[in-house]
Write a structure and sequence with these properties.
Blueprint: H1 7-17, E1 19-22, H2 28-42, H3 60-67, H4 70-78, E2 82-93, E3 101-104, E4 112-113, E5 116-122, E6 133-136, E7 149-151, E8 157-160, E9 183-184, E10 194-198, E11 203-205, E12 215-224, E13 228-229, E14 257-260
Length: 261
C-alpha cells in the first residue's frame, strides 16, 4: 500500500519539475527525536557542510534511516522498485546566517551514475525569510553536468574542483540571470514536511534573515533502481566502497537497500 497521497500527481510533478513537496513525512516522535539529535551535532561547532554521514554510527540518525518508512517514500516518488541509502547530512542555518548557499547540483559529489534523490526534511518552519530552498524548474532534465566546488564556512561558493575534467562544465551565474530561468520555491514548509528532489536539479538556499528563527534541515541521500556505483575522484573519496565494482547496482552492505518491492 502506498504511503504517498495522490501518488500519480506527485510522481508527475517530480518527473516534470525535478522536485516535489511532501507533507507530513515525519511522525511527531521522529520529529522530536531528529530535532534533539541535530542539536547535539550542531553543538559541536563544525563547518556548515561537516555534519554528514551520521547514519554510519549507531544512534538516532541510523535508527531513522534504517527503521522508518523513508526508503519506501523515496521509491514511491521515483517510481522505483528499490531504494538504497547513500548518506545523510544536516543543514542548520541559524538566525542571522544571511549567506546564500551557492547554486549547485548534487550528482557530481556522489559516486553514483543514474537516478538519485535527496529527501530534505524540514525540522522547523521554513520560508523565504529563514532559508527556503530554491530550484530551477526542470533543470534535472537538461543533461548538464556542472563542476563541483568547495564552499566557505557558511556555504557560499569558494572555488571549483575538477577544473581539468572535461566531463564537467562551469555553473552558469543563475543568481545574476534569475529572470532567464524558471526559479521557484515553495512558500512554506511545516516541520516534518520534505522536499524530494533529483540529484541533477539545480538548487540553492536563501539566507536566514531572521533574528530569532532557526532553520534546521535534515537531508538523506538515496540511490534508486537504475543507479550504479561510479567512483570518480577525490571529491567523493570518503564515499568510495572498495568492496564494490564500478558499474554494479548501487546497493551493498555499505549502502543498504531500505525498501524493495
Amino acid at each position: 500500500m502506498a504511503l504517498t497521497p495522490d501518488l500519480p500527481t506527485v510522481q508527475a510533478a517530480y518527473a516534470q519539475d525535478g522536485v516535489v513537496l511532501l507533507r507530513d513525512v515525519l511522525s511527531p516522535k521522529w520529529l522530536a527525536t531528529l530535532r534533539e539529535a541535530v542539536d547535539a551535532e550542531v553543538a559541536k561547532g563544525e563547518r556548515y557542510f561537516a555534519y554528514k554521514n551520521m547514519r554510519a554510527q549507531p544512534g538516532p540518525f541510523q535508527d531513522f534511516c534504517l527503521t522508518s518508512d523513508i526508503g519506501q517514500r523515496v521509491a514511491e516518488v521515483a517510481g522505483a522498485s528499490w531504494s538504497s541509502l547513500i548518506y545523510d547530512q544536516i543543514f542548520a542555518k541559524e538566525p542571522g546566517t544571511r549567506t546564500q548557499t551557492g547554486w549547485h547540483t548534487d550528482q557530481p559529489y556522489w559516486p553514483v551514475d543514474g537516478p538519485i534523490m535527496t529527501m530534505w526534511i524540514a525540522l522547523d518552519d521554513v520560508d523565504p525569510d529563514n532559508g527556503a530552498l530554491e530550484f530551477v524548474r526542470g533543470s534535472h532534465a537538461w543533461g548538464a553536468k556542472y563542476r563541483p566546488f568547495r564552499t566557505d564556512q557558511q556555504g557560499a561558493f569558494s572555488h571549483y574542483l575538477e577544473v581539468d575534467n572535461p566531463d564537467y562544465i562551469d555553473m552558469p551565474d543563475f543568481e545574476a540571470d534569475r529572470a532567464q530561468y524558471d526559479i521557484f520555491h515553495f512558500p512554506h514548509m511545516n516541520p516534518g514536511d520534505a522536499l524530494a528532489f533529483d540529484g541533477m536539479s539545480v538548487h540553492s538556499a536563501m539566507g536566514n534573515r531572521t533574528s530569532t528563527r532557526r532553520r534546521r534541515g535534515y537531508a538523506i541521500r538515496f540511490a534508486v533502481e537504475g543507479a550504479r556505483y561510479e567512483p570518480r575522484d577525490s571529491v567523493t573519496e570518503w564515499l568510495h566502497d572498495p568492496a564494490m565494482q564500478a558499474g554494479q547496482p548501487f546497493r551493498s552492505a555499505t549502502f543498504p537497500v531500505l525498501w524493495e518491492a
